[in-house]
Design goal:
The complex is a heterodimer.
Chain A lengths: L3 E12 L2 E12 L3 E5 L6 H9 L6 E6 L2 E2 L11 E4 L11 H11 L4 H14 L15 H13 L5 E5 L7 H16 L3 E6 L2 H7 L2 E6 L2 E7 H5 L6 E7 L6 H8 L3 E7 L2 E6 L5 H10 L4 E7 L3 H9 L3 H5 L12
Parallel strand pairs in A: 3-8, 3-9, 6-7, 7-8
Antiparallel strand pairs in A: 1-2, 1-4, 4-5, 9-10, 11-13, 11-14, 12-13
Chain B lengths: L1 H18 L2 H22 L6 H30 L2 H6 L5 H30 L7 H23 L5 H18 L14 H4 L3 H12 L8 H26 L3
Helix pairs in contact in B: 1-5, 2-3, 2-5, 3-5, 3-6, 3-7, 3-9, 5-6, 6-9, 6-10, 9-10
The chains are: A alpha/beta, B mainly alpha.
Chain lengths: 327, 245
């Protein structure tokens, strides 16, 4: 691993009587995309606020490039580009003026920031909307401009808080492509998300966080290692299977694990199981199989196993994506 | 140099986005006109008494102009979260807040000169000491802006900022010697007058117009300057305590 650019040691934060973050420690290496994955209220935004200086920790320390920044984060803020979970640019300014203003906040001279603004508007596909007011942008355009604004001063560290939440599929795909490109260019990216597939697709290392506690931090391949050789079969049934699940696993010993979520049933095995006998068995029990899908084991299974949180529930927490499906 | 670029652009952005918008420009002209007209209609006095009301009208124009704007430039931006962008920029909080208030101070100074310009059309302002009037107007603008800032950072909503502002502003019209001499106030209210920085500002403007005043110019300047420092410090303390949690 490259030397850590960001190091958090025992970060703790309380809001009144609520423990928002409980002794959270992790390191982010130079040039990597580090995913911070968890449901709403897990402590993702609080962590970004503590790292960037929008909040003060009640305990623990933060190091940026090896230098402690707790209590003196202003020294390091020129290294950060920050994209908040809500687009917080100025609605009355045009896209171009917003970028230019953000560059000025970091001391960029007029000519330099105007050139950079034009360049980024092109990269983010917003050149034609440069002179339109930010308030007239679509949600996806707003998010793209917010990322462009964070990149104005060419920061080596980029913090992104749920960058693709609530935006259309095409914009989300475009943003993910841009993040991957930035990472290849050496930018260190700290990404919070509650989209498991997004973390799996983009991140080199991933941290699972829930209820303010860090449950696991590891390389993506290490997280996926236990899933190798595992086979998943997801069934959608006509009614809830209830206590007949035990009978099913006894009738098919190759099924190592079976879990239920309403009328959905997930069967896990070390070898592919034949679908026909399972369908017939269930039909004999008066349960019809409406849909059967063989799934590639993914980070979702690891997440569910470690956090105990159903991925479906987490997906539904925020605004559904326009167009649905996977982006 | 980087700090100067940031300062100038924050000020410029606020000027374009807020202060130079037609409603604010018209407010700056109409408000002093309305106050001057109201005084003359009510008292039945002639234009020869314009000089007497000039310190009060100038001070009230600055007070209302500056405190109203801070609710927008600070409270509204905090509410819409664009203020976070400023807090995350690599500039000190002191410089950031100077930049955010500089526009309101300039707006207040511009507001003050509207009644002076109107008065100059009707009466001779030759006795006016510009050496006292200019720093007095500037300090009244600074102290009123910092009062607005103190209010703006003590609340969460724009409407709360407006309500809280009125809680200070309307009593100040009566207590600070703008139109009613402090000497004529009931004994229990007199100490209150000296709690408000505007009292010292109006007193200075009276000095500038060679009118009877309560304190010496040196004391007025010192207390007005002190008020500015106290209000700014309290505002920064509130931002650090309430906004950088």
């Amino acid at each position: 691993m490259n030397p850590p650019v960001i190091r958090a040691e025992g970060l703790t934060k309380r809001y009144g009587g609520v423990l928002a973050l409980d002794r959270v420690s992790f390191e982010v290496a130079e040039g990597e995309i580090f995913g911070f994955l968890g449901p709403n209220g897990a402590g993702k935004t609080t962590t970004i606020h503590l790292l960037t200086g929008l909040a003060r920790p009640d305990g623990g320390r933060v190091f940026i490039h090896g230098e402690e920044t707790s209590g003196r984060v202003k020294r390091a803020q020129h290294l950060f580009g920050i994209v908040a979970d809500e687009s917080n640019l100025y609605p009355e300014l045009t896209g171009f003026d917003n970028l230019s203003f953000c560059g000025a906040l970091y001391g960029m001279r007029k000519r330099a920031r105007e050139e950079r603004a034009r360049e980024l508007l092109g990269v983010f596909g917003l050149a034609e909307a440069a002179d339109r007011r930010f308030s007239g942008y679509s949600k996806g355009m707003k998010r793209r401009l917010a990322i462009a604004a964070a990149l104005m001063h060419r920061p080596p560290i980029l913090f992104l808080d749920e960058p693709t939440t609530g935006i259309d599929v095409a914009s989300a795909r475009r943003i993910r492509g841009l993040l991957a490109e930035l990472s290849r260019g050496g930018v260190t990216i700290f990404l919070t998300t509650h989209y498991i597939e997004e973390a799996e697709r983009l991140c080199r290392r991933i941290a699972f966080i829930a209820s303010g506690r860090l449950l696991r931090v590891d390389l993506l391949e290490e997280l996926l290692e236990p899933l190798k050789g595992r086979h998943l079969l997801r069934l959608t049934l006509s009614r809830e299977i209830g206590d007949r699940l035990g009978g099913l696993t006894r009738a098919f010993p190759s099924i190592a694990r079976a879990s239920l979520s309403g009328k959905r049933c997930l069967l896990e095995s070390s070898a592919p199981v034949a679908l026909g006998p399972i369908v017939r068995y269930l039909e004999e029990c008066g349960i019809e199989v409406l849909e059967a899908v063989r799934q590639r084991p993914s980070l979702e299974e690891v997440f569910v196993e470690i956090t105990g949180i159903e991925a479906e529930a987490m997906r539904g927490e925020k605004e559904p994506r326009k167009g649905g499906g996977e982006a | 140099m980087r700090q100067a670029v940031a300062f100038w652009n924050i000020l410029l952005k606020d000027m374009r986005a807020y202060y130079l918008k037609p409603p604010n420009v018209s407010w700056g002209i109409l408000f002093p006109l309305a106050w001057t007209a109201m005084f003359f209609i009510k008292s039945g006095a002639g234009p020869e008494r314009l000089r007497e009301v000039l310190p009060g009208v100038a001070a009230i124009s600055i007070l209302f102009g500056t405190t109203s704007m801070l609710a927008v430039t600070v409270t509204f931006e905090k509410k819409s979260r664009s203020f976070e962008r400023l807090l995350l920029a690599p500039i000190s909080l002191e410089l950031l807040m100077f930049a955010k208030t500089a526009g309101a101070i300039l707006f207040g100074v511009a507001n003050a000169f509207v009644p002076f310009a109107i008065a100059a059309l009707f009466v001779d302002l030759a006795p006016l000491s510009w050496g006292t009037a200019l720093p007095a107007v500037f300090l009244v603008a600074v102290s009123s802006t910092f009062l607005g800032l103190f209010i703006a950072v003590s609340v969460s909503e724009v409407f709360e900022a407006q309500t809280f502002s009125n809680f200070f502003r309307f009593p100040m019209i009566f207590l600070c010697g703008l139109f009613f001499p402090i000497a004529d106030l009931p004994v229990v209210l007199k100490p209150l007058a000296y709690l408000f920085p505007l009292t010292y500002g109006v007193d200075l403007l009276r000095h500038a117009l060679r009118q009877p005043a309560v304190l010496t110019p040196a004391v007025d300047f010192a207390l007005l300057g002190l008020s500015c420092g106290v209000l700014f410090s309290f505002s920064l303390r509130n931002i650090r305590r309430r906004w950088i949690l």
